[in-house]
Amino acid sequence: MAGLDIGPTVPVWLAEDDLGCIICHGLLAWPVTLPCGHSFCRDCLKGRWDARRHWSCPTCREGDRQPLQLRKNTLLQDLADKYSRAVGELESGPRGPPSPAPGPAPRPPRRPAPSRVTAPKGIPEVGHELAELVDQLVDIVRSLQNQRHLPESGPENKLNTLGMAFSGGVDHSSAAPQLGTPSMPEEKVRDILHNLEDIRGKLQDRFAGKEPLEEQRQVKLPKGLSSSSGPLTDQDHLASRFAQRAISPTFDLKSLSCSLELSEDCRMVTVSHIPQLYPWNPDRFTTCQVLCSQAFSSGQHYWEVDTQHCNHWALGVASWGMGRDQILGRTRDSWCVEWKGTGQLSVWSMVKETVLGSEKPRVVGIWLDLEQGKLAFYSVANQEKLLCECTVSASSPLHPAFWLYGLHPGNSLTIRPVKV
């Protein structure tokens, strides 16, 4: 202990507020501690109690009608004296022996407490935090909405309410329907949900591209997958490259889940607010998925999908024999790129997921080259770029395949005409 410097220094954890009186807002002078444990200056308390016969703590209001004898808290007094002397030495300079102080040191003028400086957050960080808050609000509204549509308990509904468990959550799209016209409160809930999802989409579009470029491009892909680190050149413009191979497939009603509904031209699929009463069909998916009617066993084909109005989706190809209770990409006869509402873009190939980044593509171009056994995904909304390319091998024809996460009523995907 001889080597330690025991000079009067102010500990970094000690502030004037720790030795202050809340009545006079100054350093404790002749401190006294009440039975409740709170401490104050003696003169401050006497000034409050002169006209009273009982005492009451200014902090917790504990008190008694009996008079109270105030006794000095010598420990607090010693700490206050040392603090006062140390502050005086720091203000006058580090050198020179400390001057003795036989009695309580004079109370120094009150200084403002040191402010805690926090580094300002960047715009991308604030944007992501806002998006997370909106996600929480969306989840709350969806929970309320789902509770409105829960089927009554009964032996015929118990199996239907189990849903399909998978890595991204639980799909309740197979829940039994409740017939009836939605009431006005339900319509308001849907409007609120739609507005929140619109806000979340705008936040994601606004801030998704703000991550450091190095972080976005450091994507390690397994064997059989490849990715581009930048936009395509003018010579690689997708419309000109794939114009002769462009198609506009249509959704197949036989495979359509009862949680989905189609537009009249069968090129827009939407998550229904209430399950649809389609005729039973062994080819119908039990989860929010659908295949297209067109099947490809050879050649080259290109189509585009608008994803702006869907918060959680997967796009790709699958064979017609894919299990109707399975999820796209989680089988050996299906491949896809998937956007998760949490802000993650992944590719699923050979039942393995590989994260690609955190930027949501608003329009996805899909290039299927069965002559070379390649499947490529492009972002084609603003700046065209290759998202990922993977190897496909199927013994049966492949259909364009789609999955819309079943807990988001109103979300939609649209197969749009390719603009040449």
Question: How is this structure best summarized?
Answer:
The protein has 420 residues and is α+β, with helices and mostly antiparallel strands. Helices cover 21% and strands 22% of the residues.
What value does the Rg take, in angstroms?
A: 34 Å
Q: Main sheet: which strands, in order across?
A: 7-18-17-16-11-20-9-8
Low-confidence segments: 1-7, 110-119, 149-184, 209-221
The first-to-last residue Cα distance is 83 Å
**Number of distinct helices:** 6
Task: Describe what you observe in this structure.
By secondary structure, this protein is α+β, with helices and mostly antiparallel strands. It has 6 helices and 20 strands. A hairpin with a 5-residue loop joins strand 1 (31-33) and strand 2. The longest helix has 26 residues, at 123-148. The chain is elongated, with a radius of gyration of 34 Å.
Any chance you could write out the topology, listing elements then pairs?
Elements: E1 31-33, E2 39-41, H1 42-49, E3 55-56, E4 63-64, H2 74-92, H3 123-148, E5 164-166, E6 169-171, H4 184-207, H5 213-217, E7 225-226, H6 238-242, E8 260-262, E9 268-271, E10 289-291, E11 300-306, E12 313-319, E13 334-340, E14 344-349, E15 352-357, E16 363-369, E17 374-379, E18 385-391, E19 398-404, E20 412-416
